[in-house]
Amino acid sequence: MTTARTGTAGTAAVHDADEVLLGFTRALRAAGVAVTQDRAQQYLAAVALLGPAEDGTRAAGRATLCAGPDDLARHDQVFAAWFDHRTGLPRPRPAAPTTTTYAALPLSDAAGAGEGPEDDADVVRAMASDTEVLRHRDVAALSPAERARLTALFATVRPRAPHRRSARQRSWHRGDVDAARTLRASLRRMGEPAEVVHRRRATRPRRVVLLVDVSGSMSGYADALLRLAHRFTQAAPGSVETFTLGTRLTHLTRALRVRDPERALVAAGETVPDWSGGTRLGENLQSFLIRWGRRGMARGAVVVVFSDGWERGDTALLAEQAERLSRVAHRLVWVNPHRGKAGYEPVQQGVVAVLPHVDDFVAGHSLATYAEVVEVVARA
Amino acid sequence: MTAGTTDALEPGDVARRLGATGYLCDPELATVTFLALRMGRPLLLEGEPGTGKTALAEAVAEALGLPLVRLQCYEGIDATQALYDWDFPRQVLHLRALEAAGGTAAGVGGVAEAEKSLYDERFLLARPVLAALQQSPAVLLVDEVDRADDEFEAFLLEVLSTYQVTIPELGTVRAATPPVVVLTSNRTRELHDALKRRCLYHWIDHPALEREVAIVRSRAPEVSEALTRQVVELVQRLRADTGLVKPPGVAETLDWARALHHLGATELDLATAAASLGALVKYREDGERVRAALDRVLAP
After folding, report:
1. What is the value of pTM for the model shown?
2. Coil, strand or helix at A240
3. I want to staple B179 with a disulfide (CB 3.0 to 4.6 A). Which of A25, A155, B140, B214 is the partner?
């Protein structure tokens, strides 16, 4: 493959066709399309059927190597680069940087306890532990060292998935009669009437959709919010979807499914192209609704928006989209990092626009408030 | 036409034969369909609602002269609704009938015999997937697979990779010729990679102006040509306007053209267009936007 990539026009003829095609699949993988070995094999088979002409190769690649509209765009880009001018080929991703895991916290709740039986009779302890203080501190105002300690504390956030009734039935000791099972049981006894089996509707985890604003005004919270999203994803990997809102909408679910939080955040960082940019909340919500939400992802789901409501664009559009979102979703939760601060009034135009359509408006600036968010979602 | 005769096909033939059934597709879709037929792979179609995903399966079945077996997915669907189920009431009846006829004369061999007769093919209710394997060659349409739970996907995976179903009491049912499988998805959720990997993928877009005119002409020949062109031009313009909650698909274009025809229109005019708008857009907000667009387009 290396020779294929460095080959110039003069030496290209020595390369086997398969070699060039397989090189292309490698390039595509480097561009972020999940090309597996069997897909590459299928690709070769498809090209063999369609012939080596450009159209055939392109159609074969789109059919066999791609798994979604995002992949199609990447495929065409890499295709042009690989077979035409060979510039602008994406580089393979650098390996994820190794990160140190921080050791135990310097101060724990237990540190001050049990100093002696005589001193706690009438002494009111006025000092909270460092950890407890940290839990209530504004995430955006932490020093790097405190931030690192807080990172470790995120493991204590334990989201629980909300539940809904499913269309499936489970056997239960009372409820509707399960005719099929009852008859099957009676058949096992050669047709003698057997015990009547009952069933009832089962429950399933309700889908949770997290929309995280990563624009400039939220940059202090982005790291903490993504860690929270990671906790949510790890608690119920199949039923949590995460998107970031910035100048554009980015689907982040796959990156956050990585179990290790540090690696997941690195993957997320590579996925999101627009950290700390501007916000077009209304447009972002609209494209979320069109591309994902209305088709079913937000239907009956608990949608949690993490944003301070700073809107660059038109707030009328934002209000309209929030209304639509609240109609599609089971529950719309708005988490605002400024809400919990002293003297906060919801006066930003964006917040004013969405407030009538929001079911829960909660604070989200410290670890303690994130625990509340978790609670609100679990109860939804 | 079976796998034997698909060997001689070219992508162009596929487009022509689909066109003969009234399904006009672009060259890329024809190529993917050709690949699916030749490679014996399932075809996974995604795209906006109303772009003709389901219609493709119907057209393929018609073009190949094969029966179409349709499995509509929904939440909670499981193997007994997709594969097979035993007809329990009839089995119990059969058992009672055996009792009444033979009495207690049967020995150990008789019992085994009676039990064997219980799990006979006539008590087997073939659901779509099994039916498609039994009727092979056939076209199996797994519609809106994204609506089913992910557990169901795992089950589909097994069937789609081996084209056989094992019934413990009866044995293995294998398709003589693997069925042509078409899966459609509206992307309400991301399908599992394992399922996608087994399929050929195609994203169906809204057709371009000329193709859509041709589609409407072939599907609704009773509508006048002038009206068809006006309708399609307006719909294409509406799609380009991203403000719509639900941009109309080809199915809606067809509906609207037919609706206008039933109202006696041979050309688009404001009154009939406004009256029949319900066939084109299904949201109140969209209705208002389209009415405004109509005023702009049709105002003298």
Report:
1. 0.72
2. strand
3. B140
Domain boundary among B188, B204, B220: B204
Number of domains in chain B: 3
Phi, psi for A7 (deg, rounded to 5) = -60, 135
The answer for B 159-198 residues in CB contact with A (under 8 A) is 186-190, 193, 196-197
- Predicted local distance difference test score (pLDDT) of residue B105: 52
State whether B187 and B140 are in the same domain. yes
Task: Evaluate whether A61 touches A24 at the Cβ level (below 8 Å).
Answer: yes
Residue A64 sits at the chain B interface (C-beta within 8 Å): yes
Tell me which DSSP letter residue B265 carries: -
Do A66 and B31 lie within an 8 Å CB cutoff?
no
A145-179 in b/e burial notation, b at 16+ Cβ within 10 A?
eeeebbbeeeeebebebbebebebbeeeeeeeebe
**A188 at the B interface (CB within 8 A)?**
no
Average pLDDT, rounded, for chain A: 81
Cα A2 from Cα B204, distance rounded (Å):
35
What range defines the domain where residue B164 resides? 3-75+128-204
Tens of pLDDT, residue by residue over A118-139, are 444 455 555 567 788 888 888 8
Residue B251, both tokens: 């199915």
Range of the domain at A40: 2-85
Q: What is the DSSP string of A185-208?
A: HHHHTTT---PPPEEEEEEEEPPE
How distant is the Cα of A213 from the closest Cα of chain B, in angstroms?
Answer: 22
Q: What is the pLDDT of residues A132-176, one digit of tens each?
A: 888 888 888 888 888 888 888 888 888 988 988 887 788 888 888
What confidence tens digit (pLDDT) does each residue in B40-88 have?
A: 899 999 988 888 899 999 999 999 999 999 999 988 888 888 888 888 8
CA distance B249 to B205: 10
More confident residue, A344 or B179: B179
Peptide bond into B137 cis (omega under 30): yes
Quick one: DSSP state of residue A294?
I
By Cβ distance, the residue of A56, A67, A324 closest to B201 is A67
Q: Quick one: CA dihedral B187, B193, B197, B198, positive or negative?
A: negative
In B44-87, alpha helices (H): 53-64, 79-82
A64 is a domain residue: yes
* pLDDT-derived band at A10, boundaries 50, 70, 90: very low
d(CA A298, CA A326): 9
Among the partner residues B88, B150, B187, nearest to A187 by beta-carbon distance:
B88
Range B142-170 burial, b when 16+ CB lie within 10 A, else e: bbbbbbbbeebbebbeebbeebebeeeee
Range name among A7-11, B11-15, B123-127 with the lowest pLDDT average: A7-11
Q: pLDDT at position B212, please?
A: 92
Q: Is A196 on the interface with B (CB under 8 A)?
A: no
Q: Are A307 and A273 within 8 A, CB to CB?
A: no
| Distance (Å) of CA A81 to CA A5, A20, A60 | 11, 13, 17
User: Is the CB of A69 less than 8 angstroms away from the CB of B46?
Assistant: yes
Its ipTM equals 0.72
Please name the residue that has the structure tokens 């597996």. Answer: A36
CATH number at residue A290: 3.40.50.410
